Amino acid sequence: MASQKFDAVIATPRSGKFNKNHARRVRVEGKIPAVVYGAGLETVAVAVDPRVVTRILHSESGHNTIFDLDVTGSPVAKAMIVDWQHEPIKGKLLHIDFKRIAMDKAMRVSVPVQLTGVPVGVRTGGGILDQVMREVEIECLPADIPDHLDVDVAGLELYGTIHISDLPHSGSIKFLGDEHALVAHVTIIKEEVAAEVVAPAAAEPEVAKKGKGDAAAAAAAPAADAKAEKKK
pTM, whole model, 2 decimals? Predict the structure, then answer.
């Protein structure tokens, strides 16, 4: 379960025209623009310290972390980060969306799936472990949100599979995806490698054919020129 504790995130209300110039001024001051919404209350535009938000996003529970959000002039509320934007080149945070959380109401979140161990099919069967699904969507109370779901795949044979139904289940968590959906499997890549090796060889006749056509065209060119000259 998400257990890491953080100090309250302090947010300062913003006012004025919310355009690019306004956002730029907020960032110049060392803050980032954000909005707070949810719990049936009005949406509030705020500015927050990007370092605090970055620590939360990089924590074990990541964006599923629930923390106290202290907006100046309003009661402290439980909140989560539900959306964020990064500057594409330098990776700096540009904007954050906070959502107020009601601790007594179930919510939907995506939780990472972590595979542990090396499958038998990889150690002795020459296979590879392919994780198809890295997150699963669940529904539970905010206090029951796990940091991640661990699955031991050490006993997985070649062509063995892990489905959502094989993930750790408990009475406090409801899985929203198809129970038969594939999460991970042990497969081999021999067929793919063979196809890659054969493909270039199969292309050679076509290249040779094209070369012959070019040669024939080149040989015919002088005759065509002579014929044209004779007509003159």
Answer: 0.70
Distance CA 156, CA 185 (A): 8
Query: How many Å apart are CA 37 and CA 71, to the nearest integer?
Result: 12
Number of H helices, E strands in the chain: 4, 13
Which parts of 58-132 fold into alpha helices (H)? Answer: 120-123
Return d(Cα 13, Cα 73) in angstroms, integer: 8
Classify residue 186 by its DSSP letter: E
Structural contact between residues 194 and 132, judged by C-beta atoms closer than 8 angstroms: no
pLDDT digits (tens, 9 = 90+) for 174-228: 999 999 999 999 999 765 554 555 555 544 444 433 444 444 444 444 444 444 4
Looking at the DSSP bridge assignments, the partners of residue 114 are 150
In this predicted model, what pLDDT tens digit does every residue of 69-94 receive, in sequence order? 999 999 999 999 999 998 888 888 99
- Cβ pair 187, 159 in contact under 8 A: yes
pLDDT of residue 211: 43
Distance CA 67, CA 48 (A): 14
Rounded to an integer, what distance in angstroms lies between the CA atom of residue 177 and that of residue 203? 43
Q: Which of 133, 130, 127 is nearest to 110 (CA)?
A: 133
